[in-house]
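User: Could you check the structure of this?
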Amino acid sequence: MSGSESRVLGRQNSDSQLRLLLAQRYLYGRAKRWRGVQVACTVFLPALLAVIVPTGLRAWVALSALLLVALDEVFLEPAISDSQKKAASVQEGFDTEVFELEWPAWRAARPAPETVCAGVRDAERASRSIEVEQLEDWYPRAIGRVPHPLSVLVCQRFNIVYGLTLRTNVVRVLTAVLLIALAVPLLIAQASGWSIATLLIEGVLPALPIIRWAWRELNRHKKHAASQERLQQTIERVARDAARGALAESEVRLWLRRLQDEVFGLRTTDVPIFDWVYWLLRKRAEPTLNAAAEAYVDELRALLPR
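Assistant: Sure, the predicted structure tokens are below.
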């Protein structure tokens, strides 16, 4: 396909765009911190109480569990959802600017300047401040070797592949947690000679919150990964057609906005990955993903008309 040189590289490292990234990283971080509180209150605290509270006071444990469920539904889950949607809208503001796409007014309102400024301010005040250097070159430099519309498709694919790679590792960890939570009570019961009734009361019930959480999170991550895989396949098909010239440039731009809508939708319903897990996985995955982006750009360049 013909087209102007990609302008993403020049735009993504401007001060205004780095401010958007700084704000969205902090807002996502806040959603993850609320999620940490949620896991502590609805998973680990009930399990701990079930172990340490004497049998005669177990009715209070049940009442506490009900109150924690109410706290989760009324306060924690809305707080997580609100922070996540704000972060997703700020990230969408970044993408629409660097990709030169119109804002999807049919899906969401633009992030208010107060939201961005507050996110930047809070990020700068936070003790675990995010280094701006970590946010530069958000999209791989390989995109500079293909025309602008095609480079946007590469960026959209990079978004999906990046998230999918991290999520695959999280699924492995959750699977291990689930297996351990199921196996430990059985091993203890076998070693201690417990009866079935004792196993249920002393082993399974205290572990039930962790088992429930790991099972629910595992299924949520798998469902999200399946949606990401389908979107990746669509992006790759459009990119091949665009590179070969099978799509007019006007059709490519329509696809860019349609695909970005899907990316935005996935972000608003994403399952947050805790920051310490995110940065650990990112450090390991980023070099490989950047090299893969170079190889993918080479594939698309081979399809371009000579």
